[in-house]
Amino acid sequence: MNRQEFEKFFEEHHKDAYRFALSLCRQPDQACDLVQQAFVLLYTHKENLKNALKVKNWLFTTMYRLFLRSKKREERYQYMGIEEMENFLVEENKGEITVDCQYVLDCLFQLDEPYRIVLLLYYMDELSYLDISEILNVPIGTVMSRIFRAKKLLRNLILAKGSNQGKNRRSILEI
């Protein structure tokens, strides 16, 4: 597919692509972004496409996969405004909001190395499971189970130490 064919394809199918994207995400701005991402991918991979008759299928499949990926990201990183966050924290903790970063780090560094490393890579460096598995040279399932177990171990450490050392924690309002 050369540039002229791509432009012709875009002119013919961008409305259908937008309609499909809008049916997926139900928000015009997100639908525009989804269509743009899909067409950018199509343009950057146009040399790899073998059958010009299946380009539309490829485009719609790509948009659907991009949508699923964005939904997964939204679920993982839920957006919340500052006022919402304050209200949420106050309601969740019944007015008492406490945190001590050093306290959490102390608990984190008490974890065994395999668990500590995956948590640091996943949460601090924001790497994906696949990236972590490549870095550590372990299967992706191992990374997933280590993260799950590490969170559970860290939670237990924090709660155990918290009941013994509650006086060392500071109010988030003091930070």
From TrEMBL:
Statement: the UniProt record of this protein carries the keyword Transcription: yes
Family annotation (InterPro entries): RNA_pol_sigma-70-like (IPR039425), RNA_pol_sigma-70_dom (IPR014284), RNA_pol_sigma70_r2 (IPR007627), RNA_pol_sigma70_r4_t2 (IPR013249), RNA_pol_sigma_r2 (IPR013325), RNA_pol_sigma_r3/r4-like (IPR013324), WH-like_DNA-bd_sf (IPR036388)
Keywords: DNA-binding, Sigma factor, Transcription, Transcription regulation
Stretch forming the signal peptide: none
Family named by the database record: Belongs to the sigma-70 factor family. ECF subfamily.
Pfam families (alphabetical): Sigma70_r2 (PF04542), Sigma70_r4_2 (PF08281)
Superkingdom of source: Bacteria
Every RNA polymerase sigma factor 70 region 4 type domain range: 102-154
UniProt organism field: Candidatus Methylacidiphilum infernorum
Keyword DNA repair: no
Name of the protein this chain belongs to: RNA polymerase sigma factor
